[in-house]
Amino acid sequence: MSILPPPTAGFDLNVPILIVGAGACGLVAALAANDAEAEVLVVEADAAPSGSTALSAGLIPAAGTRFQRDAGIEDTADLFAKDIQKKAKGENPQELVDLLAGQSGKVIEWLADRFGLPFSVVTDFDYPGHSRRRMHGLPTRAGRELIDRLRTACEAQGIDIICNRRATSLFVEGDHVRGVRLEGPNGTEDVGCDALILACNGYGGNRNMVREFMPEIENAVWFGHDYNQGDAVTWGEALGAETLHLSAYQGHGNVAHPQGILITWAVITQGGVQVNLNGDRFWDESQGYSEAARTVLAQPEGVAWTIFDSRIAGIARQFQDFKDAEAIGAIRTADTVAELAEVTGVPEIKLTQTLFSIPTGGPDAFGRSFLGEPLQPPYCAVKVTGALFHTQGGLKVDPEGRVCQTTGSVFPNLFAAGGAAVGVSGSGDSGYLSGNGLLAATILGHIAGSAAANDMKEEHGHA
Questions:
Q1: What does the domain layout of the chain look like in residue ranges?
Q2: Comparing 2-243+393-462 with 249-388, is the CATH topology the same?
Q3: One digit per residue, pLDDT tens: the chain, 463 residues?
Q4: Contact 82, 100 (CB under 8 A)
Q5: What CATH homologous superfamily does 2-243+393-462 map to?
Q6: How far is CA 211 from the centre of its chain?
């Protein structure tokens, strides 16, 4: 990951806007730039567009959309912004929070109206920290569908996406990026550009950076995309870019073990609990799934059993991942607590005490209130561990997605969005509000793509 002067022999190819990364961020940025009539090229290190998006539930939080209104939900960008800051204890740059919350509804409706993405709001359970139901997802509630539909939209617009091309160096002159060196199956290619958008996510796949910035999660299962190696931060720091909250990340404490399948947090919010191998509950599970990763990893053998019932399983089946977990036997079922103890290997006496001590009204010893229905047979259980999904710190950007320099100015034609830029999750793991990753990916991606395209128009106008 190096910074080089422009090649003396010139570039093999020149494009107006080059986007590194074909996850949700890069593809939305490409669609936005193309909509503003700019020519764009997307390069992707993997064999196909995927990224961390494909491993997620594909849910994007947005406020004030018609999808919410159709479901009878009243919401505002201001309320959304307050929820983001409350979860992160006010640690986020307010300008960035207001920007993402304020643009969220518009971008969701644009994706639906312009490209036919069939969004609907998750209306049958609440996500921790959200005061309104604002999670917008596609029919399968799977990130793979989101990526596939965005890719199809790009192809329909004639946007070129070249895969198996890993960006290894930036060509820089002064404070302008002039191009990128790509490594592919046939060697290296040097591509010149008028604007560069870094949409290559964060550094969760780089064990050295994880150990440096977030040592408490270094032993977690890595559930992100292996190409998330911190390229944007590495380049940025070499250029004198400002970084922020490099210790922030999204974890998840409900990944089926050893199957490695994400189990929706709905099994918790609807009344499920987590117990360790001794049969004890060990925390207030309603806080959120990000901080659950560290909490679960602290238990014996770094695992826990998530216990719920058939009513809750019915709600969880709207997620393709949950159905996949059921299909391969990761979800155990039992008609009695004794049978539940047998299928989980948890001591029956302790498990009985734990399940029958869950209050039906006020708060328990951990401060969690159970206001729904108590767990009833048949029971369900899944063995889970803690995972690192993606990092939330990154390059500091201005309201157009331009990368900020440590001197206080910006790089005129270098943009960062999604996991490459700082998110709105505060400085650790507990500041992550459900959906923050895809919020930053899609909304900031749209902003950066639009701003880069507007630059092209101005340059063309001055030519």
A1: 2-243+393-462, 249-388
A2: no
A3: 689 999 999 999 999 999 999 999 999 999 999 999 999 999 999 999 998 998 888 999 999 999 999 999 999 999 999 999 999 999 999 999 999 999 999 999 999 999 999 999 999 888 889 999 999 999 999 999 999 999 999 999 999 999 999 999 999 999 999 999 999 999 999 999 999 999 999 999 999 999 999 999 988 999 888 999 999 999 999 999 999 999 999 999 999 999 999 999 999 999 999 999 999 999 999 999 999 999 999 999 999 999 999 999 999 999 999 999 999 999 999 999 999 999 999 999 999 999 999 988 789 999 999 977 889 999 999 999 999 999 999 999 999 999 999 999 999 999 999 999 999 999 999 999 999 999 999 999 999 999 999 999 887 664 4
A4: no
A5: FAD/NAD(P)-binding domain (3.50.50.60)
A6: 20
Mention the CATH class of domain 249-388. alpha beta
Per the structure block, which two tokens stand in for 417? 């969005």
**What is the model's pTM?**
0.93
